[in-house]
């Protein structure tokens, strides 16, 4: 499997890995996390709210986040790159501000436990994961026995699905720098569900990035719409004037031309 029809996911994964490596090589990782008492209260470095999701500060988090984003590329394929990129922008604005604000509230009553917001787009990963959980059905389920008994009943086994491994990777990512990473994951999951439930203002839900920002030119969109129009006309054209259920040679040629156009459209989309 590749990043075919998922250019935003490809850019997201490559950008995350590149910025994380660059921050490590240039020794600037200390700019990408938030210490509530020092960075926000003492020095008022509010710009950190919009930079802490740009990269991770250790290789383990980079690996698990890249694996999660790669497996979640199916959401982009189902939505389209334009809607997917717009969702990422809106979600990142909410997840940039809400987790640190919650930490500001919890820090005094938690004896300083909620004082460190780790770097990385873990909240965004969980916002996408919320869409994946709702949109993508499981293909199969399997049962894992928790006892050595050969005839294990339902109470001594765990039922999993083909999607469980992705959830396991994401949960492991959220636990690497708890409690901050857990809080970010919870907020991201909540933002994803709120966005899908229509609780976010409709203007933000319906807002879209310009097509050129996600690599969609006007010529390509016109070709896609024209191909769709031809396919719809071919499917809805009435079969009148045909005796004994046999199509005329002109109709057969038109159907062959339409199928050929469909194949060419698919090749263009893949390229």
From TrEMBL:
CC terms in the record's Gene Ontology section: membrane
Coiled coil stretches, renumbered: none
InterPro entries membership: Rhomboid-like_sf, TMEM115/Pdh1/Rbl19
Annotated GO biological process: retrograde vesicle-mediated transport, Golgi to endoplasmic reticulum
Alphabetized GO MF terms: serine-type endopeptidase activity
Composition bias, Polar residues: 237-251
Region (Disordered): 234-258
Pfam families for the chain: DUF1751
Keywords: Membrane, Transmembrane, Transmembrane helix
Domain of life: Eukaryota
Listed Gene3D superfamilies: Rhomboid-like
Subcellular location: Membrane
TM helices/strands, residue ranges: 6-28, 49-72, 84-106, 113-134
SUPFAM superfamilies in alphabetical order: Rhomboid-like
Topology relative to the membrane: Multi-pass membrane protein
Stated name of the protein: Peptidase S54 rhomboid domain-containing protein
